[in-house]
Records
---
Amino acid sequence: MTLKLQLIKELRVPIDAGCICPDTFAGKSLNEIAELQIWEGNRKRLLNSLFELKEDSQETPDETNIHLTGNLSRVQRIGAGMKGGEITVQGDVGMHLGEKMLGGTIMVEGNAGSWTGSAMKGGTIIVKKNAGDYIGGAYRGSTKGMQGGTIIIHGDAGTEVGCYMRNGLIKIQGNVAQFVGIRMRNGTIVVQGSAAERAGAFMTGGKIIICNNVTSILPSFSIDSIKSKAKAEGEAIKGPFYLFIGDLADHGNGKLYVSKNKNEYLKSFEEFL
Amino acid sequence: MPVIDNVTCPVCGTLCDDLSVTVKENAIIDVKNACAVSEAKFMSFSNPKHRNLRPLIRKNGKLIESTFEEAVEKSAQILVDASYPILYGWSCTSCEAIRVGLELAEEVGGITDNTSTVCHGPSILSIQNLGIPTCTLGQIRHRADLIIYWASDPYSAHPRHMERYTAFSDGRFQESEWEHFVTRLRGILGRRRLNRASELVLMKEASLPVFSGQKLPPKFETRKRKVIVVDVRKTHSAEFADFFLQVEPNKDFELFQALRLLVRDGELEVNQVAGVPVDLLEEVADALVGCDFGALFFGVGLTMSSGKLQNIDAAIALTQDLNLRTKFVIMPMRGHFNVAGANVVYTWQTGYPFALDFSQNYPRYNPGETSVVDILSHDKADAGLIVASDPVSNFPRSAVENLVKNPLIVIDPVISPTTMVADVVFPSAFVGIEVDGTAYRMDRVPLPMKKLVDPPSLCHSDEEILRRILHQVKRIKQQRRKL
């Protein structure tokens, strides 16, 4: 069964809506869900003061689907900690989408904010347009970024994608800004588009695959070989790729695959092979 | 005439506490030991042309004089009615005022942020990431034999920093390099005159007399106290340095990482990094490792250029790497005189140093989300209180546009672009001149600020004004609860 939530108010201040989660809705009547509390700035509100609710929910979380519509770019923490079920969003969505989620699927038809899928352990997040910074990253002060699951961004992503990533897969079909895979320890990041400078800074493990142009390679990376293919979670991506190892300044052993054909300027590294 | 000694200067983060101020009939007539910036403040702070002298409230689009009570009532109403107010500034006031400000932020459920959000906020994030190997400035004065100013220009921004704490200070174990510098300065001036003459005669542009190039200067290693300046352009401070290393703009991160690799005896597979040849970089790495006690001071050039906190992460990591081989410390060159104090008071009260969100009745911290510039740029706030700061002059345009759309309260001793667009203006007294208080130096040493003269009759201290607003906020909330 699907529960439909339609935003009925134009938002000014940020909304903390951590309760919009299949696990929270499961087993509750429509009236009980309508009276869940959310924060609008520093005011406590009921869910039905901002959303129009339709349909009902079912008891098992795996079968609860939530369908959100409206401009939710100021609504934060949707699907935080979710274990199962599905959330679909028609429109943009705010920060911390699916933070610490363990399972289930979140599908966003518009743009997503920063910290999407931060510290997530399982499940899938799909964003059809662009996403902000720190996708699959960690919180301030934490060294535990994404630890499992999959994030797929169809558009571009901001800085520090996969910061402190420990496992899982992030696929960006567009371009990424600086510091993709910064401090990552394990897991895989695939960038179909181009990447700005400083890819893999401070990384100690894991794999970053950049299929298009990369602005520059950090001096603390060393060329290892030229590979015809790169493997990403069972899928083979056609190259050829330069394989760099780094970040050597941190005794790192991360793998940075960079398209050979799209980065002619890296030819000078071939003399070290 | 009474001369007040050991006055702490309320200008920059160096917080010089050896000023002598002469006061006559409630006016400062002389100040000794001060730098040009400090002297300008002490000698002209009371100029009525620059000062707010009465509380003002905007009515029908114009700022009209009002009573203090009316301004307090209006401010309290604005803050209580707001769903997401921001309380910003705090770096040019006393720790005592900041403490009251935090209580006010908690009471109104607002966002409170200090000016480190637009200067050394990234440094704080890095310190939380990696820790910081640092010490007090006294240690550096007595022991440091290699001083690096990276992306900071102390000559212009912290004029007495070198004289009091680094190259030109006479330490217990390190001598001042002043005489050596004066000799060199004579040479520099002579060369300048020659260059100027050659400019006039040969119509050729003269080269700048700074020690830089492809190699460290001869006998660099044998010199007692060495200064290296790293910057994107030849600053005034570069003229004082034994060596100036020019880095390409926005490439500091690469340079740090390369240096880290070299310090760890690694090899680079490139010929140059950030415009610096690798051979020179190896010499610099040797000099870093070869010192007995090194100190790296970094400025806003690192924190606010491309890479932001990652530049500082790399700088701290370099310092940590160097500590495997020698003794090295690192310190941010804090700007306003009490910006370090703002961080200290915030941390002591809430656990977090800046970008605090009290909207859910407990402190939350996530710079990027709860930092004032991000909130204003996305137009999420609905009221503002600015204390001792001028964000209209230095915030991004979109943030300023959104700030001035909302009701705005400003507490400031001087007339600034921010007070001009405010809805309520409180005239306040200068901390460290007209009221006393506590401030923290850039190395987080607290120093007392002295009261030298009486403030104008309607100018109260920031602390007093904030206490009155807080009291009124509590009263209004109590009344509303009863209803």
---
Amino acid sequence: MKPTDISHPEYFHKVVDCQYACPAHTPVPEYIRMIAAGKYDDAYMVNWKSNVFPGILGRTCDRPCEPACRRGRVEEGNVELRKPVAPGEHGIPHAEPVAICRLKRVAADNKGKDSVAARMPKAPTKKNGKRIACIGAGPASLTVARDLAPLGYHVSVFESDQKGGGFMRTQVPRFRLPEEVIDEEVDYILNIGNIELKSGKTIDSLKSILAENFDAVFVGTGAPRGRDLEAPGRKEAAANIHIGIDWLSSVSFGHITKIGKKVIVLGGGNTAMDCCRSSKRLGGEEVKVIVRSGYEEMKASPWEKEDAVDEGIPIMNFMVPKAFIHKDGKLTGMTFDKVKAEYDAKGRRNLVPTGEPEQLVECDDVLVAIGQENAFPWIERDIGLDWDKWGMPVVDQVTMQSTNPKVFFGGDAAFGPKNIIWAVAHGHDAAVSIDKFCQGENLHERPDPMTNLISQKMGIHEWSYDNDISDQLRNKVPWKDKKITLKDIKVEVELGFDPLSGFAEAQRCLNCDVQTVFSEKLCIECDACVDICPMDCITFTPNAEEAELRTQLSAPTPHAKTQDLYISETLKMTGRIMAKDEDVCLHCGLCAERCPTGAWDMQKYLIEMTHAGPGCHKSKAPQKQAA
Amino acid sequence: MTYIAKPKLHHPALTKNSVGYTRRDYEGKISTLCAGCGHDSISAAIVQACWELDIQPHRVAKLSGIGCSSKTPDYFLGNSHGFNSVHGRMPSVLTGANLANRELIYMGVSGDGDSASIGIGQFAHAMRRGINMVYIVENNGVYGLTKGQFSATADKGSKSKRGIVNSDEPLDMIGMALLLGATYVARSFSGDKKQLVPLIKGAMEHKGAAFIDVVSPCVAFNNHAGSTKSYEYVRQHNEAVNRLDFIEEREEITADYAPGEVINLTQHDGSVMRLRKLSEDHDPTNRIKTMNYVQEHAAKGEVVTGLLYIDPSAVDMHEHLNTVATPLNQLTAKELCPGSKALDRINASLR
């Protein structure tokens, strides 16, 4: 294999599994260390810069970081680990990632509101004269506004509701995300200045917006239409059949405060989980979730499924809705066909009837949460904007620009329903594009992210980070008493980590951003690093092609989706190479501590994504010279 | 030294041996030796050998004297018996322990100072008596603990870190072990675990006095140009005579070897030790020729490594002394005081 090029920004970024998996690439270990140090303001600001809504995301994020987290891999096969400190934990301990998402909330809960507010950017007094329109005040639009306002842009945000927040305010139930948190984080953005929230008015024509001569328009209107279920009896029983996301927003605004005693929620996604848990709080005594697929294949995040089950809501799988049953114009139940999963030769799943008789499930109300769709009835088709065959706008994956150069898309409006953190990531990318567009620059010439690699050595065996690896299992976030939470939809269920359990959880982080950097010129091949490595990551071996080299490792990885091998130049003494499997490295730094020559060093790799700003602009001077 | 304990977390694919332990279970405390010390590699090799041999840690007694090398038993086999004895006196304590309980596996760990200077007499007599043990000398040619004076094994003409040339003749531990009757004599290098681990395994299975001289560079005081015990020098001058693939009794020999390439040595318990020859003119079963061979190559400046000599039919001190099969420490008053009639019989036989 060729020696690894560690100067490539991608190489060490990949080693930081959590940050690499995050759509916004939040520097996770960096802020977790700050939480452990009690520097909550700093931790909050690192988050805020990258993902804009730390308090909201710390409660609701889809957390792609956690399935990626290395901690989940390295705890495998280590059952002798210490039991968690949280009381009431039973069962066989199993490998789990760091509770990254809930640690974000620790920063948000414990920061000083005033001190953080004082650190927020302010719009400059001198404007740049450019006007931007953002349609919808959800996470994507607010991110664009936040990135552009401090640069001197004037941003008008159009929102049909009274307040900003979009999906976060209308569809996420209050028992998961209190209103104050949304208000606070939306206000941080609006208070930057130069952002005008035009609320309470629905935009019904993009043409009219374009006619207002904005320099650019950003569309962040989400995926506002819930999919309906066409089945016999749908029309007759319509009074008791509700579309999930519409029902959730009615609940959110207080228009709906009650539901029948027996409720069926159709669908297996996160919206279905919010619907069933909300129903339980509004008078639903027998709430059931009924899903076509099996439990494992449900789209909802595992923890959201677990939370619903924990609240006593049964999830019934492999049942396909057949008909709504009604009597005298009133819904009385639904019938279902039972199916089973069969896989064809290509591994594709087919749901085939089991042949059992149809099953009747009685109910008073049905909530349909079987998916969301995009809807753009308000965008004219003659404004130079191309559409694909699924009715979605044609949008550049990198620049977020549509075929009308002035119009940009982001969030669920761009590529269909995703989640908040993706919307934020789109917002950042769109802001870079809009900024460059307004400066008359090529949108595709985007600067690389900022990277920094610096030694963490403080003394002979002292590092600037805590390299003593915690052997604690994942801490559980405490819940408020169910007797209270199941009665009041506005009472938040999760209490969040307190500073002590937050510290304990933060210590589980392996500091994967503190990289093991190898200098072959200094190596004397004494084997000290090989001997000390607790995870057997390091091997000195003759070079070979990757497939063969992997078989020569001290401990080949059992994981299918592996990290890269870190390969050194040929070593001068024996002609071998150093091969380090990054897969289960603990970043404990013992290789560097036991290295007599400093050939191994622990260096912190900080990568910050490109955000809109002067750094993205081409220097004008060289251009003139070239011309 | 490292301040933190080695993390308990281990590789997810780490396997257990037939007695239910992972390799990590054979480790000891974290080393307090200098970073890069060859001794730590030897500790790791001992850990690997014991794990591969499915040895139950409580069946091992590790003994040592004084010095950097003699600290190391704290860093491996944390669940075994241990005795950190007086300087140079490890062989006596080991001999006594072996006499008292012949059932344990004895591992003596010593250094060039502990064995070649203050303990040279003890070393000699332990070899002579053929005690069933593994005697490892972690040989760095320097007194590391007292800041780098030449030890008795430092080669004549080699240079100290301060530039002083050694004018004394070195003490040849291999040559002495051969002369004094050790029945398993090997030399290896701390930086070559592929060679060292099988040699330790072979020594542990050998019934008799097994001696391994392991060149183990001192990174702090003897790893410079002019040293003959540095990583670089040993790598450049290492002449391996053979590779030992220790095999169990039931294991079938399937690999193909050219004629004369392999020597199969049947041990007296029936197991077979397989040696892959790397040097044509070396016969590891001939003691006299081995002595010449090692001296000739040493004169050329080569460090000969591998299994240099073995007597597969060796016997140990207990056979020489004709002791009972039951360990002496398990004999009760009944066996030890057979009564006045037995005494009368003995007395009568002496009249």
---
Amino acid sequence: MELYAAGFNAWGQLQFGKDEQTNEEPDDIPTFTRVLRDDNGIDGIHPFPSYTIVHTKTSGVLTAGLIPKADLPLTTLPHPSYSHFARASNGLSVFNDTHLPLSPLFPQPPWTPLSSLFPANTNIPSTVTQLISYTTGFAALSTFPDGSTQVYTWGDERYAACLGRDIPASSDTNGAADSQGETEVEVVATTPGIVTDLSDLPTGPITKLAAGGYVLAALTAGKDLYIWGHGGRAAAAGLRGLGVSGETMPIVIEDYDIEDVAVGEGHVVVLTTSGEVFVIGSNSNGQLGLGQEVKGVESWTRVSIKSEGDIVGVAAGPKCSFLLVRDTVDKK
Amino acid sequence: MRNMADSDSCDKLERLCLSAAEQIRSECDAILKQNNDSDSKNPQATGIADCGEPLTQLLGRQASQFIFLLQSRDSPEPETVSLLLRRLDDILSESYSHFYAYLFKELPVCWRQLYTDAVILKFAALYLFSYAGPAASDGSQDTTLDEMIKTLDLALILAGAAGEQRGRRWINRALDLLEASCNPTELPREDTPPSKRPRLSPPTQEMQTAPIQQDSPVFSTHEPFTPPVTHPIRRTTPLSLSDFQSYMDSSLHGPSPLIITSLASTWPCLTTHPWSRPSYLLSRTFSGRRLVPIELGRSYVDTAWSQRLLPFRSFLQTYITSPSPSPQTAYLAQHQLFTQLPALRNDILIPDYCYTAPPPHPTDPSADQPELDTPQLNAWFGPAGTITPLHTDPYHNLLVQVVGRKYVRLYSPHDTPRLKPRGREGGVEMGNTSTFDVGIVEGWDEPPASRDETSPAADIELFRDVPYVDCILEAGDTLYIPIGWWHYVKGLSVSFSVSFWWN
């Protein structure tokens, strides 16, 4: 397998196996460039703002960039654990204590146990298979034994569109609900609430969530992609072309089915089932792989790489992107 | 190349830039060293430490790089300078994103300081590696000069120029030196003391006899619309401090609004340093290059309303002095302009009344704020037709009219429930703003097409019954707005007012 990367590289977070201390200021990587290769395979790519952790079959855990001292213990976690903790940019951090131990890794504060956000009499946290963050909040994917899923969101009420669900109007908070036909109870912004629009989709349950900046995305088992978020902040970050709102919106890219999705602070990367990569949003640091001259794109734009292999996965940090490639060696 | 006359300012500015970079480098090094030495986080860690190790390292690296480039013999490669500037922009964008992620009052100060320090380094890099002085014949240096001034103003306006070692003091000093280097022949900035002579003639004549800029044009006094004053507020000549204190304490229900005439008529802004002249205001804003925050749209409750940062000259030319009507109303509103532009601060005085002990809120003790150390000053400058919707503030207010005329209507805090305050809207507390729009109820304004809610006709009839007082403020008038009084303000002509909040 090969890992290709493009984008923000101020801490060398796209350069594996490079000595940390050099006098050269590391520059960004403006086109998708191979940064890693492992003949036996790559299990997971975990981009953080200043570093990247990659789990490989041959060499185990590889890191690139500057890992803050406080984060060093996180690098000891096995690959699946990265789906169970998330940090927003407003000082809030959540970890799923039903999957991860209440250990010194997650001191409280700043970490909040996921179970403390749900009523005590529910087992929902233990069904959460993926916990992610956007700038001012969180989303959790809950997968039930029968294969059905629910998506929960919670966060700052000022950016309620990122929740993808209704929240009680301010006047309702004090008094009782006045409409008698209402059976759904709207959950306040800062408490996990179900994104009902994603509960019963024509192409099946949700298989993956992705988020960054003020934009969230969900993939269905039937290879459809839904995106929602705060239009104003998304536009400010370079994603004007996406036209997101608080309504979950199916994304149509020609006739393609969508295999994978990654969301950065101001860009989105999509992999189709036929192995094509489409990008949209800000290219301020080369994160779309479109070179140094392009500042960004407002419509889905295809990017290609110089590899004969098949692209099988995508990942994104705030201002960088990764493509996972199964090369010809893997195919044999 | 810079000429001889301004070389002193240039040298001083270069030394200022170098010493800031050295400070930043050593502060970042100290934070990183402390981070490595001790396992427990030092509770005394200050500055940008809370922005985390990676950003501290990145900023420190750029400071080192700047110093290295400045001290090398050869002028730096353009690619090296470009990467330095891009990395500083990366730090600016990262810190700025936190301004939105947090409520502003909860934003950790480290993000404002990180922004400010990155601005200081960016200014320094632009000044020393991109800028060749104000005299380039092709005008290209004007662009760099605009960029340098804009960079510093962003730190003042967006980040409050945080930081104890440098911060606002550094930025003001850099702007003074930069301006001096551009205008070596300009007269010293020391201001002549304001004239103490009493007003003998109408304000317009007095301005014509001002010692400077006698023949430069004044703002238009044209009034497209003048609303009738139906319940005039009492007007008085200046009261003594003790009389004003007695006035505020005279009623158990709290004081009423009062107009004090000629309190401000001898201030420099109305006499020797006339704010009524565009040329004077331009001379105090780095030839109009300084950035100011502008509100665009009819009223801040409309959905089409927005905010922008514009160079002062563009604001004047596009929205104030343009002979053709502008598509939108633009208002420099509720901005702490005098903190940003200390030169204009010298043109006004703080009324002695701001040092009295005013009574608390008459109906709602929860509205009372912690005592302000100094009165809070805001500037309100815009064309005819600006509107501040009916709202209430948590301070006593002296609204001083400096240029043009404004209509003000006030409602008592005892009638608050009848004014139907808004609630929380989109996570933002709007309870200090009424759902009623005075201009629309009175038929003075067209309701905006985008307006999402209008009050039912029956409610509007009830609103019409709520008693009020009103007035038209003339240049030199001061309106005392007691705490909690709801007020609607409409600019009738080009208008410049200053508000003083105190408690």
